[in-house]
Amino acid sequence: MFVDSHAHIDGPEFDADRDEIIERAHDAGVSAILNVGTGDPHTGVFERAIELGRKYTSVYTAIGTHPHDARFYNDAAEQKTKSLLKSGERVVAWGEIGLDFHYDNSPRDVQMEVFKRQLHAALECDVPVIIHTREAERETIEILKSDYDGASRRGVFHCFSGSKELALRALDLEFMISFSGIVTFKKAEELREIAKEVPLDRLLVETDCPFLAPVPYRGKRNEPAYVVEVARCIAELRGVETEEIARITTANFKRFLQIPS
Ligand SMILES: [Zn+2]
Ligand SMILES: [Zn+2]
């Protein structure tokens, strides 16, 4: 059984065939999907994600304000996120949050401030965080060190595509590391080196669909069933069976998100 630990399946890309892609995921052995609701928190995007989780029992939900949308975050967004997390609707993580200095869709100082605020709020709510970081490794680590310390500290670097240095820092912070289809891309030699060495109990796999479809689907719309290709790639790198990576990443997912077996 596989788990797609990070997907975006509540958006318009899947409106036409959402039932089928979830069915295809089940057929491929994907037993659970963590759907991550993103966007301007005031526009109903979190509610839309939760609604999806209500409809499909294999779908869990995460909500949080993405660094792209940091400029929309305020007290009302924070209150809304907190109360939805407590709604009992299988909302299991706060994210994705972090820093994206590649696109700079929100000003960097705002991104950093909002990242800190959401880390504090997640600690208060006792839920794990999902970290998105791009071209901001140093700042991300500094903020995690200074603003994310408490008994309930738990997190994952999702769609990991950073340096070996970042991976080591993440592991030092006791974070999980999740690999996406990028690991299958031809030029991702350095990333494959990292995927080979991450301790097995810290490893997760994801699609981050609809983007970043793994080889051999590269360039097409991505979907949760393709997480099998990510697991297959990592299994090959490590010289183990794909089933072994499936078993371990599924167990890690349940432990990390405190989902009963
Ligand atoms: Zn992301
Ligand atoms: Zn994402």
The ligands found in this model are: zinc ion
Order of helices and strands: EHEHEHEHEHEHEHEHH
Span between N and C termini? Answer: 12 Å
Radius of gyration: 17 Å
Strand adjacency order, main sheet: 1-2-3-4-5-6-7-8
Number of strands: 8
- How would you sum up the major sheet? 8 strands, parallel
Strand content: 15-25%
The geometry reads as: globular
Task: Label the structural class.
Answer: alpha/beta
Provide the low-confidence segments as ranges.
none
Query: Approximately how much helix is present in the residues?
Result: 40-55%
Element layout with pairings:
Blueprint: E1 2-7, H1 18-27, E2 30-37, H2 45-55, E3 59-63, H3 75-85, E4 91-100, H4 108-125, E5 129-134, H5 137-147, E6 155-157, H6 164-172, E7 176-179, H7 189-197, E8 203-205, H8 227-238, H9 242-256
Parallel strand pairs: 1-2, 2-3, 3-4, 4-5, 5-6, 6-7, 7-8
The structure holds zinc ion (2 copies).
Structure description:
With 261 residues, this protein is an alpha/beta fold. The protein is 41% helix and 17% strand. The protein is built from 9 helices and 8 strands. Strands 1-2-3-4-5-6-7-8 form an 8-stranded parallel sheet. Strand 7 (176-179), helix 7 (189-197) and strand 8 (203-205) form a beta-alpha-beta unit. The chain is globular. The chain starts with a strand and ends in a 5-residue tail after the last helix. The model has no long low-confidence stretch (mean pLDDT 97). The site of one zinc ion has 4 residues, from loops.
Short description:
By secondary structure, the protein is of the alpha/beta class. The chain is 41% helix and 17% strand. The chain is built from nine helices and eight strands.
